[in-house]
Amino acid sequence: MGEKLETLRRLMAREGMDAYILPTADCHESEYVGAHFKARAYLTGFTGSAGVAVATMEEAGMWTDGRYFIQAAAQLKGSGFDLMKMNEPGVPTVEEYLAQKLPRGGKLGFDGRVLYTGMVKSLQKALAGKQITFAADKDLVGEMWQDRPALSAQPAFRLKLSEAGLSAADKVADLRKDMAREGAEVLLLPGLDDVNWLLNIRGNDIDYNPYLLAFAAVEQEKVTLFAQRAALSDEVVDSLREDGVDVAPYEGFYDYIAAIPDGACVWIDTNKLNYAAYTRIPAGVRILDKPSPVTLKKAIKNATEIANTRNAHVKDGVAYTKFLYWLKHNVGKAELDEIAASDYLEARRAEQEGFLELSFGTICAYNANAAMMHYSARPGSAAKLEPRGLLLVDSGGTYLDGTTDITRTIALGEVPQQWKEHYTATLRGMINLSRANFLYGCRGINLDILARGPLWDVGIDYKCGTGHGVAHIGGVHEPPNGFRWRIVPERNDSCVLEEGMITTDEPGVYIEGSHGIRIENELLCVKGEANEYGQFMHFETLTFAPIDLAPVLPERMTDAERAFLNAYHEAVYEKLSPYLSQEESAWLRQETRAI
């Protein structure tokens, strides 16, 4: 891997660059990227979904967040890149680092197609006064990557009204009202989540995200979808045309922007629009820079999406329960490792009607491996499962009904007392947030303490948010809702919690070299009582699968917490038992017993 860094530096020297920056991104600022865009992983060896690599002629750093500290430390060995732990004391930001390292009059290179405009503006501000030249059209890693995968163009499909709840034409009509209020003639949509939701289209161009690679431009009289024609059948093109959508070549997005007439007002979000697209906006065009209204609209699920999502969670719960039954009955009797367990769970999901794909790569982590929040088992190094300790399984599926995300930590046998204490504190935090009753206007930052409190009481924290929004038949991480104890601007997960939003609830404990614990359900925000104090809100639990009682210390729980768990388990049994075998149902009855 160190040889790749040296090759990069030779190319930098050829271009007269003093530094080169490489994010984890595609042209759409997607969280997960297709194989063609995994340039940062190719260069550094770090495979996590979040990170920014920066190379100078003398040093190199790889910035990532707390979810990946342990994983990155292992994968970066020998690469020449030092791990830069984001938000940790003494660790500079990428902008601060470059301000320190770049010489006056220096040159910074990057590929403007994969660096969003907001990041470039932040760099410009940090480097102001140093007369830095930006070389924004340099895909140096692309020059190095001889066997780079081609841009994906998998077949796309349209959602039925019974799956989406609203037609694309209705969604566009509603969107145009927002544009008219803001005085915008053009709305540019670079985000795959926005484009695919708005036009009720889905694809398979990114692992775990059922999205078509595409841009869109919305005007008052027309909508243009910029996509690879090879991904669109004649039937899909015809159905788009019926909804008033024209289809243009994928790369035509940039020429379209350059042709926007002077005096027009174009609505963009510089935290989504890549810099190469931004620089094509003509000087005479007025820019409205604010988040796309699509972001909030798709986060508030309609009645059809909610009803279908409930169905998806029953299917997912059945698959997960069959997996738990199999695991409990086979550990210690058969040769099992993390991959075998993960594969069995995926097979049970694939049996469910309407299953499309996993919603993310399954995290199946035994004992110490579970201390890595986003651990991924690899052939040849996957841990063998023994009848002792804990197995953390974080997984989900995308169905034509909706998208799921569930974590359970499972006792495979004897569990140390301290681990039980950590498990019970985690469970209490998950339950406390699930039980929240709060006034409308609260944000996730107001409620996060409910989940962290039991862990903070014993001096433990986790270096990530407590929960994130979940899309409908889309990405498992969806802004703008979430639970977090402090605002992290780049996360965009601190909005007011609205009726219809779906958010995960997943506190955890991560003790490096020892064990990891996480328990996760999805929550639907619903209206409660309205009185003289305002509109109260609460959560409906959508996830249904047994929570392992073996590591629970009931005496450490309050009466209200135990009552919630017992009622939840009764609901799990009622919803799932009709779809299980007689043996599985009898086992589930015992696993959901009252404590």
**What is the number of E strands?**
27
**Annotated CATH topology of the largest domain:** Creatine Amidinohydrolase
Principal-axis shape: globular
The CATH class label of the largest domain is Alpha Beta
**Major β-sheet annotation:** 6 strands, mixed
Which strands sit side by side, in order, in the main sheet? Answer: 4-3-2-1-5-6
| Name given to the CATH architecture of the largest domain | Alpha-Beta Complex
Helix residue percentage: 25-40%
Number of domains: 3
SS-based structural class? alpha+beta
Annotated CATH homologous superfamily of the largest domain? Creatinase/methionine aminopeptidase superfamily
Query: How large a portion of the residues is in β-strands, by DSSP E?
Result: 15-25%
Contiguous uncertain segments of 5+ residues: none
Cα distance spanning the termini: 53 Å
Instruction: State the assembly state of the protein chains.
Output: single chain
Mean pLDDT: 97
Radius of gyration, in Å, reads 24 Å
Q: State the helix count.
A: 19
